[in-house]
């Protein structure tokens, strides 16, 4: 449990960091507090047998990751834009990634047994902390994207992406625990309620990449887990007396909740409508259409930045093709599309190594989702779908928000065949030997 809490503090600690720093006012605006929080996560990950017992990893993903890091470190040292003169901070980030991977290699596979329930508890606490922060923040109003605000005056802002990421992790973990055959009735119901709570937080954050990822995750779940025969059995089971009684209780419970929390339902509905309208206007802008008031539709700031990035890429292909071959230099362009930035800044070498890793991780994820070998691998596989979506929508290829989860993929995904049977969802039973 200590190892899992440490891992979660590293990969999903920012919601709690913002809560402690800005809502509880323990260290407003302090980067030292953030660094100390992550350092505490690293300390919790250190096993007593550190460096005495190492565990197997996915060597294919590791080799591809090392190739990409070799490229970016070469560019950082020898081929970078003039404005980027100090690589110390970036080097520290890469050391954090290396340390995280080293600690993971020392952590036993037994964390699989407790990873999902601890993740549920951790993410639900973070979701509750966000709701508390919103209710107690006088500068936040209904209609704004849900995030803990930081900064002062006109520079006060928030980062909804870290909260949508936490909410999606909560939905995935709760879904895995709820549909696990060994889960009893009460924990299953609690998991489903926590999953719905996480979806509500997703709606409040209005983060496109997470919403798209959730849709893809649900689609993959149904593709690999629902069969026509199961649908028939489920429909037949709905008309059993026990099922009808349960549906009646659920219906009454939902009706009671909606009567008591009508304002909350209206708020969520308003967020959903605003989210759809905002994204439809982006679609209209992409097609060159007009909105209802006959004004030409325009992109919002986020979509507009990506549209500018794609136009930049088009200009490179039309008049500066040599940039695609060798790149412009380390961090020379900020495009907010990781795959595109790997190409523009690091040329063919950076693009090939980065995409090779990302698509290999996608291959292992799809295979893991299909086979569902163990709860931790399945969680990471579904979680990677969100990271894969973000490769086309936001972020940079160097960020630790990508590479810390990637380290988890390297450590645990694609190696379930090496685990003992007690850690697997579908252990292989050895045939009995007749004597």
From TrEMBL:
Residue spans crossing the bilayer: 26-48, 60-79, 91-107, 114-135, 210-226, 238-258, 343-364, 376-394
Keyword Transmembrane helix: yes
Keywords for the protein's UniProt record, in alphabetical order: Membrane, Transmembrane, Transmembrane helix
Keyword Transmembrane in annotation: yes
Name under which the protein is recorded: O-antigen ligase domain-containing protein
Organism: Larkinella terrae
């Amino acid at each position: 449990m200590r190892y899992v809490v440490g891992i979660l503090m590293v990969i999903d600690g920012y919601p709690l960091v913002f809560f402690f720093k800005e809502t509880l006012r323990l260290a407003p605006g302090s980067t030292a507090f953030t660094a100390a929080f992550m350092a505490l996560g690293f300390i919790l990950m250190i096993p007593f047998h550190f460096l005495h017992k190492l565990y197997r990893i996915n060597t294919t993903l590791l080799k591809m990751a090392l190739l990409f890091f070799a490229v970016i470190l070469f560019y950082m040292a020898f081929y970078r834009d003039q404005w980027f003169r100090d690589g110390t901070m970036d080097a520290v980030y890469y050391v954090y990634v290396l340390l995280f991977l080293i600690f993971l290699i020392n952590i036993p596979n037994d964390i699989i047994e407790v990873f999902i329930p601890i993740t549920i508890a951790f993410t639900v606490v973070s979701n509750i902390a966000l709701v508390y922060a919103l209710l107690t923040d006088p500068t936040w109003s209904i209609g704004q994207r849900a995030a803990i605000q930081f900064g002062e005056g006109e520079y006060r802002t928030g980062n909804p992406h870290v909260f949508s990421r936490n909410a999606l992790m909560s939905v995935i973990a709760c879904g895995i625990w709820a549909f696990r055959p060994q889960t009893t009735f009460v924990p299953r119901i609690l998991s489903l309620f926590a999953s719905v709570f996480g979806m509500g937080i997703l709606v409040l954050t209005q983060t496109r990449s997470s919403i798209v990822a959730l849709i893809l995750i649900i689609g993959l779940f149904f593709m690999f887990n629902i069969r026509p025969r199961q649908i028939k059995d489920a429909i037949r089971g709905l008309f059993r007396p026990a099922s009808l009684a349960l549906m009646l209780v659920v219906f009454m419970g939902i009706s009671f909740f909606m009567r008591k929390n009508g304002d909350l339902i209206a708020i969520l509905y308003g967020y959903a409508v605003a989210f759809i309208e905002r994204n439809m206007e982006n679609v209209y802008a992409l097609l060159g259409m007009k909105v209802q008031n006959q004004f030409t539709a325009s992109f919002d700031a986020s979509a507009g930045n990506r549209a500018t990035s794609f136009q930049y890429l088009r200009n490179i292909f039309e008049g500066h093709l040599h940039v695609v071959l060798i790149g412009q230099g380390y961090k020379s362009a900020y495009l907010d599309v990781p795959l595109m930035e790997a190409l523009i800044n690091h040329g063919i070498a950076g693009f090939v190594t980065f995409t090779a890793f990302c698509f290999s991780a996608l291959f292992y994820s799809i295979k893991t989702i299909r086979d569902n070998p163990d709860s931790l691998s399945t969680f990471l596989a579904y979680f990677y779908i969100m990271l894969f979506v973000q490769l086309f929508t936001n972020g940079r290829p160097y960020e630790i928000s990508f590479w810390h989860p990637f380290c988890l993929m390297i450590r645990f995904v694609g190696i379930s065949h090496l685990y003992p049977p007690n850690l697997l969802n579908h252990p292989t039973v050895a045939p009995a030997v007749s004597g």
